[in-house]
């Protein structure tokens, strides 16, 4: 996985606008910008989220949030 663009090898739906990793190494896609909590990210009941097929080292998970696409 390319750390600068971790979605390169993920098959994500077009609605995914944000990508973030939890403390356990699991990557998630979000429709709206998620909020951080003590061991990961959550969508605050707005928009959709999807668990990806990627789990990687999570040394820097707190800084993993990336905006993939702008809203339409």
Q: What's a concise summary of this model?
A:
The protein has 72 residues and is mostly beta strands. The chain is built from no helices and 6 strands.
Mean pLDDT: 87
Give the N-to-C terminal Cα separation.
Answer: 27 Å
Question: How are strands sequenced across the largest beta sheet?
Answer: 5-2-1-6
Characterize the overall form: globular
- β content, as a range? 25-35%
> Could you spell the SSE succession in H and E letters?
EEEEEE
Amount of helix: under 10%
| Number of DSSP strand runs | 6
Q: Work out the helix count.
A: 0
Largest sheet data:
4 strands, antiparallel
Structural class, by secondary structure, is: mainly beta
Low-confidence stretches: none
- Assembly type of the chains comes to single chain
Radius of gyration over all CA atoms, rounded: 11 Å
What is the number of independent domains? 1
Characterise the protein shown here.
- With 72 residues, this protein is mostly beta strands.
- Helix content is 0%, strand content 33%.
- Strands 5-2-1-6 form a 4-stranded antiparallel beta sheet, with no helix packed on it.
- A hairpin with a 2-residue loop joins strand 3 and strand 4 (40-42).
- The protein is globular and about 30 Å long.
- The model has no long low-confidence stretch (mean pLDDT 87).
Using brief descriptors, characterize the structure shown.
72 residues, mainly beta, two-stranded antiparallel ribbon
């Amino acid at each position: 996985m390319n750390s600068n663009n971790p979605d390169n090898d993920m098959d994500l739906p077009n609605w995914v606008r944000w990508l973030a990793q939890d403390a356990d190494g699991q990557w998630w896609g979000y429709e709206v910008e998620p909020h951080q909590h003590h061991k990961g990210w959550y969508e605050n009941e707005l928009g959709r989220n999807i668990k990806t097929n990627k789990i990687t080292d999570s040394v820097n998970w707190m800084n993993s949030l990336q905006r993939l696409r702008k809203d339409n």
